[in-house]
Design goal:
Elements: E1 8-12, E2 33-34, E3 37-38, H1 39-49, E4 54-59, H2 64-69, H3 74-80, H4 90-98, E5 100-105, H5 112-118, H6 120-123, E6 128-131, E7 135-138, H7 144-155, E8 158-164, E9 174-182, E10 185-193, E11 204-212, H8 215-222, H9 233-243, E12 246-250, E13 254-257, H10 261-276
Parallel strand pairs: 1-4, 1-6, 4-5, 8-12
Antiparallel strand pairs: 2-3, 6-11, 7-13, 8-11, 9-10, 10-12
Helix pairs in contact: 5-8, 5-9, 8-9
Uridine 5'-triphosphate binds next to helix 5.
Length: 287
């Protein structure tokens, strides 16, 4: 049953982050800081802005720092109490007050589709958002998830965020095919995971923001492994699109792939020059 109100956002965060080794050997990729805030906190802030305060993590071995980040730290807070440094924790303290957090573990890393299926226990039978924290998104107006939630309220179907990428980079993304039903909004006819440029139907690449209806879990339960022997969420959404409407949305804003060195450095420079370039340790305005 379609519901108007979305409240849950799933954060698949069990991947090994091999592109960022050795930094990710003993530390979750999601905890890498963009200036002085971990990637995952930017993601949770985007979810909150979209009205999603029920935050569900699919984590894995070596990811406990994420749980600790979204919890109080008595000793530290006592230590800096009454000093100007207290303001550095205001943002995270307000997140902890606003959200509920739940966690489950993906025991074997069998792909993003499998990670999302592992999250079913936290989501249940309702539509939900998925946010991949290593895709850092920024926009002057509404955040990407907020834009997508507004669309969901109109269409009540699964929605993937897309952006145009250079044709010679399609092998790094899931790619959609479909019909443009209004400017920047496509009805998906098919999707393919990491196609060679010569086989790619378009250059419209899926990025790490999704809204999914819960029937996706039934599809994931029976889906065979796809590219790389992994359970691919792209394959599951392509199956869903055969049965019902699925939309792809060219979001407004900018995405930087912080799972890659180049994207990470760009995001760092972007946040620094937008918020911290004031010679202080504190942002000139809240990022
Ligand atoms: P990536 O493809 O970026 O993989 O996963 P990764 O392990 O994080 O990083 P690299 O490529 O080895 O450097 C996309 C998202 O899906 C999650 C990851 O945590 C990331 O948020 N994921 C992927 C899982 O949770 N479980 C998996 O089995 C695979």
């Amino acid at each position: 049953m379609a519901r108007d109100t979305l409240s849950k956002c799933l954060f698949p965060a069990a991947g090994y982050g091999t592109r960022f080794l050795p930094a990710t050997k003993a530390m979750p990729k999601e905890m890498l800081p963009i200036v002085n805030k971990p990637l995952v906190q930017y993601g949770v802030e985007e979810a909150i802005e979209a009205g999603l305060t029920n935050i569900a993590f699919v984590s894995g071995r070596g990811k406990r720092a994420i749980e600790d980040h979204f919890d109080i730290s008595y000793e530290l807070e006592h230590q800096i109490s009454g000093t100007p440094k207290e303001q550095l924790l205001e943002g995270i303290s307000s997140i902890i007050d606003t959200c509920t957090f739940s966690y489950t573990r993906q025991v074997e890393m069998k792909g993003l589709g499998h990670a999302i299926l592992t999250g079913q226990t936290l989501i249940g039978d309702e539509p939900f958002a998925v946010l991949l924290a290593d895709d850092f998104c920024a926009n002057d107006g509404d955040g990407v998830l907020k834009q997508m939630v507004k669309l969901y309220q109109e269409y009540h179907c699964s929605i993937v965020a897309i952006e145009e990428v250079p044709m010679d980079q399609t092998q790094n993304y899931g790619v959609i095919d479909g019909t443009e039903i209004q400017e920047g909004l496509f009805k998906v006819s098919s999707m393919v995971e990491k196609p060679d440029p010569k086989d790619a139907p378009t250059n419209l690449a899926i990025i790490g923001r999704y809204i999914l209806t819960p029937d996706i879990f039934d599809i994931l339960h029976t889906l065979p492994p796809g590219r790389g022997g992994e359970i691919q969420i792209t394959d599951a959404i392509a199956e869903q699109a055969k049965k019902r409407m699925v939309l792809a949305y060219k979001f407004k804003g900018r995405r930087l792939d912080c799972g890659s060195i180049q994207g990470f450095v760009e995001a760092t420079n972007f946040v620094y020059s937008a918020y911290y370039d004031n010679g202080e340790n504190y942002p000139s305005k809240e990022p």
